[in-house]
Amino acid sequence: MAREELEVLVTMNQHLGERARAARVRLELTQAQVALRIGLATEVYGRIERGHMTPSLPALMRMCRVLELEANALLGFDLAAPPPWLKPVAERTRVRPAFDSFLQVVERLTRRQVRALADLAQCMLPSVETRPERTPRPVDASEDPPV
Questions:
Q1: Residue-wise over 39-76: b if at least 16 C-beta within 10 A, else e?
Q2: For a Cys staple, 55 with which of 59, 72, 101, 124, CB 3.0–4.6 Å?
Q3: pTM of the predicted model, to two decimals?
Q4: 121, exposed or middle or buried, with CB in 10 Å at 0-12, 13-18, 19+?
Q5: Is the pLDDT of residue 132 over 70?
Q6: Keyword set for this entry (predicted)?
Q7: What does the alpha-carbon distance between residue 77 and residue 70 come to, in Å, rounded to a whole number?
Q8: From 3.90.850.10, 3.30.70.3460, 3.30.70.260, 1.10.260.40, which CATH number describes the 3-91 domain?
Q9: Residue 69: its H or E element
Q10: pLDDT tens across 89-98, in order?
Q11: Residues 70-89, mean pLDDT to the nearest whole number
């Protein structure tokens, strides 16, 4: 998953969790009560509410029923502006294609090659002050499998 997609997912999860918690508090229910009614373990529902987990679509639908919310409200689409976790399409289309291509190449490198590439990139930084000090590590032949 690309970093930008992960950031959107984390922000969406946090937003959904905040909305779910507010609805639960409004209904004067405990996490355990909501979890039981949704059919989830209390710990799982707690992770959803804290924004650490994305509910499945069936679980999301059950959450809406139990919390007396529409899915649009739970996800933030009831706002006049787009929900805070949803970036405008124009912003997403400006993704750096060259960087994405570079990452695809890096994913096929061995650990040793990735380290060499990182060292090369460090050397390309403008000055010594901006580069963190690194001590050379002995090369281990067992580190050749792809990352």
A1: ebeeebbbbbbebebbbeeebbebbbebbebeeeebbb
A2: 59
A3: 0.54
A4: exposed
A5: no
A6: DNA-binding
A7: 10
A8: 1.10.260.40
A9: none
A10: 444 455 567 7
A11: 74
